[in-house]
Amino acid sequence: MSIELVDPAKHYDLKHPWLDATFTMRHMTPAIQEMIDKECIVQDGKGNFRYDVSRDRDIKIEQCVVFWKGIVSDGQEVECSAENKKKLPVGVIVWLVKEIEERAGLRITAEEKKS
Questions:
Q1: Does the pLDDT value for residue 12 go beyond 70?
Q2: Closest CA to 10 of 26, 23, 32
Q3: C-alpha to C-alpha distance for 111 and 59, rounded to whole angstroms
Q4: ∠ CA(28), CA(29), CA(34), 5° rounding?
Q5: Could you tell me the sign of the dihedral formed by the alpha carbons of 77, 81, 84, 86, in that order?
Q6: pTM summary value
Q7: Bridge partner residues of 59 (DSSP)
């Protein structure tokens, strides 16, 4: 199997597995990951460093979700904005981050673990 280079200009659609929602996604790129690392590796005030996981999730959602269909508030479709992205249900955010990371090759899939 060959490795395909990441083209930041290309997007892909991600259909939620059981909800009627589709997300148009930007591929994770080395530049996005570098920005995430710079913002998420923080000093704890005691000379130690920690990784801010919640900030990591926020940045991945903000940078990678570029459009959506099927996201509503009070029965009305809402725009894909930074403010609305923060209002997504936690389960959807966790699912999106998992999908972003798996597509970027940051996680080993169950099938890869078997081999």
A1: yes
A2: 26
A3: 28
A4: 110
A5: positive
A6: 0.84
A7: none
CA–CA gap between residue 110 and residue 78 (Å, rounded): 34
CA–CA distances in Å: residue 32 to residues 64, 73, 106: 9, 29, 13
Measured over all CA atoms, what is the biggest interatomic distance in the chain, rounded to whole angstroms? 49
One DSSP character per residue, the chain reads ---PPP-TT-EEEEE-SSSS-EEEEEPP-HHHHHHHHHHHEEE-SSS-EEE-HHHHHHHHHHHHEEEEES-EETTEE----HHHHTTS-HHHHHHHHHHHHHHHT-S--HHHHH-
Tokens of 114: 């078997």
Which bin fits 114, alpha (ψ -120 to 50), beta or left (φ > 0)?
Answer: alpha
pLDDT tens for 57-89 read: 999 999 999 999 999 999 999 999 999 999 999
Pairing label, strands 49-51, 41-43? antiparallel
pLDDT tens by residue, 81-102? 999 999 999 999 999 999 999 8
